Every structure is written in C-alpha cells, then in structure tokens.
Amino acid sequence: MTATATAGPERPRRLQAQGIHVAFGGIKALTGVDLTIRRGEVMGLIGPNGAGKTTLVNVLTGFQAPTEGRVLLEDRVLQGMKARDVARAGIARSFQAARLFRDMTVEENLVVAGLGTGLSRRQARERAHEIIDWIGCAPIAATICDSLSYGDERRISIARALAMGPSFALLDEPASGMNESECAALMQVISELPARFDCGVLLIEHNMTVIMGVCQRIHVLDGGRSLAEGTPDEVQANPAVRRAYLGEKADHTELVI
Ligand SMILES: Nc1ncnc2c1ncn2[C@@H]1O[C@H](COP(=O)(O)OP(=O)(O)O)[C@@H](O)[C@H]1O
Ligand SMILES: [Mg+2]
Description:
- With about 260 residues, this protein is an alpha/beta fold.
- The protein has a domain at about 15-100 and about 165-245: Rossmann fold (3-Layer(aba) Sandwich).
- Helices cover about 35% and strands about 25% of the residues.
- It contains nine helices and ten strands.
- The protein has helices at about 55-60, 85-90, 105-115, 120-135, 150-160, 180-195, 210-215, 230-235, 240-245; strands at about 15-25, 25-40, 40-45, 70-75, 75, 90-95, 170, 200-205, 215-220, 225-230.
- The strands form two sheets. A six-stranded mixed β-sheet has the order 6-7-8-3-9-10, sandwiched between helices. It has a four-stranded antiparallel β-sheet with strand order 2-1-4-5, covered by helices on one side.
- Helix 3 (about 105-115) packs across helix 4 (about 120-135) and helix 3 packs parallel to helix 5 (about 150-160).
- The chain is globular.
- Magnesium ion binds near residues 53, 54 and 96.
C-alpha cells in the first residue's frame, strides 16, 4: 500500500448492485442485474453494444436512478444519493468520452479531483504528482488538456478518477481508440490498481486481450440481462456467451471480439 491509498480497516470490501432494473420509457436497459465488485480485484464487464454496461455504471455511481433495485457499498445504501455524494463515498469513474477540464493542465485536473474529495491543496498536489509519475505522465503534467493526444486524454481521465483515492474505480472503455502499445501500458496500469490503491476495479472494455489479461472475474451482460459470470476461462468457454458474441453457427475455438 502506498501513500496514495486513503486506506484503513474501515475501507468497504464490496460494491454491490442488487436486482437492478432500469427502463427508459419502453426500453428496458437493465432487467434484474446483480453484480458484486470486491475490493482487491479487477472485475470485467462485457457485452455487445447496447447491453446496458454504461447504464449499470451510471446506476452504481448515482448518475442514473434504478427503476428497481439496490446499490450497496458494504452496508451503506447508495441509490438515491447524488452522483457527487457517491463519488465522495469513494466510488470514482472514468467516462467513455473523457470529461476533462479542457482549459486546465493535466496536474490541475488531478488536483481539482483530489480537492473535491476533501483533501487539502498540499495533499491533493502530492497525490496528483504521485499518480502522474506512476502512469508516466510527468512530461505532460503542465500541458493544457485541450492539446492532449487522444491516448493521453484517456490515460488522464483514469488518473483523474484515481486522484479521488477511490475504494472502487469504474472504468468505461478506457482502451477505446488506443494503439497496441498504449493498450499494453494501460493493462499494466490497470492490473496494478487494486494493490496500489487498495481498491476494486470494474473494467468495461471491448478489447478482449485487455479484458482477459487483467480481470480475475468477468460479468457478461446481453440485452440488459446477466448472461454469465466467471473467470476469463469460464466465460470464454460459456456457450451462451459465445452465441451472444459469435452467433449460433459460430465454430470458432477462441472468443475473438
Ligand atoms: N438516457 C437514455 N435514454 C434512453 N435510452 C437509453 C439511455 N441510455 C441508454 N439507453 C438505452 O439503453 C440501452 C443500454 O445502453 P448502454 O447502457 O449505453 O449500453 P452499453 O454501454 O452496453 O453499450 C440501449 O438500448 C440504449 O439505447
Ligand atoms: Mg457503453
């Protein structure tokens, strides 16, 4: 554990979604989904486009109220809380589209995130520097975010989530648009997160190399319902998962998405 983790014995061990339903008018985005993310693990969340992955993250982070169901951080009920309060409770997210303050520097974006969780300016700056050094972004610390490359923008979006010192970090397609070497660096970063930040990670990703490489467990959604959950090997071998991704007639031996 490092100075980055605001760790203590009271840190929550589980973030749970229980029986989550979300309907948008006639569209059922989620139907009875149960998901538990444990502190110390990287949990993958996969499924075809429109499966409900982002909606589930929105529910877990207070951006979307469930039509039915509960969200629990250990024993604490989160549903009904504002997104800002959920973030303060220790749940951070990165968005599919990075939402950085574009006219601020990389460092300022991270400091603001730390301040938002109640750190002093000095503490927020220390944490920002530690994260920037760790993810290899020191050369761009003073760069205005508006002029970042796409890959850097995505990395900083994750860094900003971590600057909040979360118990759980929910990452929505962090590798999208990254090239192979950026993906490899990201995999390294994500696999180190649980130990370094004493947190749990939920990783949404279409890149199966990334998912299979860093997740201890994977949850599969399809059409708003849970299709399967298990280790990478179990999920890859699951016939229902293979059908969802590959179609009934698939005779592939490997799940390639
Ligand atoms: N704000 C919204 N209003 C109406 N429908 C939505 C909204 N957000 C998502 N949906 C619908 O809910 C379903 C799940 O979407 P989403 O959670 O974004 O899926 P994923 O992230 O797995 O691609 C889709 O059918 C999508 O069109
Ligand atoms: Mg999505």
